[in-house]
Design a protein that fits this description.
By secondary structure, the chain is α/β, with parallel strands linked by helices. 37% of the residues lie in helices and 26% in strands. The chain is built from eleven helices and 13 strands. Strand 4, helix 2 and strand 5 form a beta-alpha-beta unit. Helix 9 packs across helix 11. The longest helix has 18 residues. The chain starts with a strand and ends with a helix. The structure holds adenosine monophosphate. Adenosine monophosphate binds next to strand 2 and helix 8.
Length: 301
């Protein structure tokens, strides 16, 4: 099994109706790798500064995440600050301090070129080519993006889409990227650019998997107490791709895609139950299995 995740390792300052946390560990790569580690043994690629806690590197190792691709550079780790109101789907980015992430060019360590799945989580769209040029042809490539990149580099993002099989984004982001007001029409436009599958995330309303001959809706687990929505999207992608890696299924089997989407939603539902990555520190395989079963009951009729 091999799933490579290229993404940010970060300090996040987060304010939600449940409280405020200063500079806790987050990042798209961090959330995604931890989520995937409940299914497979991912490799994380990214950059941190000298201030990144050794304790989190040890947590990665304890969860069998390969950290050879994490580069330590002089300076500070990427810092993002976000604020949420009572609607967890609405967030405001207060601050983005790129620090060592600015000018970072991912370097894939020797020996890690062969991967079944390569996932680019929220990275600069210009880096997609840089990463894919360093690995041998993966069986599945996937990309997640955020409005920051849609606004900053729409052209580069559309070009990057030609290189990937699966595209994850929020429904609003897909509409923004294509200029379409209808999600289905917007998704079809993206499918024309290259990807075979779009995962349109709809926050607390779940997600839609849209392919050329696939349409599947997955609900979000009903959660009464969303403590911190940060990382839900990255965790969904980690669960989705981690499951496909474990199942040795690389996009051709619709049943496995449906199951992967449910595991993505299940894992994301845990991520939001505590601040930062804390829920993942104590999450067990049994809890995942139980929630998967309750999910089945939730949607069968
Ligand atoms: P999500 O809530 O899943 O959309 O992702 C939240 C994570 O994305 C946070 O932990 C941030 O550190 C990270 N993030 C926010 N902005 C960026 C950016 N411009 N580049 C890379 N990662 C980012």
């Amino acid at each position: 099994m091999s799933l490579m995740i290229v993404g940010s390792l970060a300090f996040d300052t987060i304010e939600t109706p449940r409280g405020r946390r200063e500079k806790i560990v987050g990042g798209s790569g961090t959330y995604c790798s931890l989520a995937a580690s409940f299914f497979s043994q991912p490799r994380i690629v990214g950059v941190v500064g000298e201030d990144f806690p050794a304790e989190v590197m040890a947590l990665f190792k304890s969860r069998h995440i390969d950290t050879q691709g994490v580069e330590f550079q002089p300076g500070k780790t990427f810092h993002w600050e976000g604020r949420y109101g009572h609607d967890p789907n609405q967030r405001t980015t207060v601050k983005t301090e790129l620090n060592v992430l600015g000018g970072y060019r991912p370097r894939i360590p020797a020996g890690l070129e062969d991967n079944d799945i390569v996932f680019l989580a929220n990275v600069d769209p210009d880096l997609v080519e840089v990463v894919l040029g360093q690995v041998s042809r993966p069986r599945l490539t996937a990309l997640d993006t955020i409005n920051f990149w849609i606004q900053a580099k729409p052209g580069a993002l559309l070009k990057a889409l030609e290189r990937v099989d699966v595209f994850f984004a929020n429904d609003e982001e897909i509409k923004m990227l294509t200029g379409e007001v209808n999600l289905i029409r917007a998704a079809k436009k993206v499918l024309e650019r290259g990807p075979k599958l779009i995962i349109a995330k709809k926050g607390e309303h779940g997600a839609l998997a849209i392919g050329r001959d696939l349409f599947f809706g997955v609900v979000a687990h009903p959660c009464e107490d969303v403590v911190d929505p940060t990382g839900a999207g990255d965790s969904f992608a980690g669960g989705f791709l981690g499951y496909l890696d474990k199942a040795r299924s690389f996009g051709g089997n619709k049943k496995e895609i449906r199951k992967a989407a449910v595991f993505g939603s299940v894992i994301a539902s845990f991520a939001i139950e505590d601040f930062g990555i804390d829920r993942f520190r104590r999450l067990t395989a049994e809890e995942i299995e139980n929630r998967f079963r309750s999910f089945k009951r939730l949607v069968s009729f």
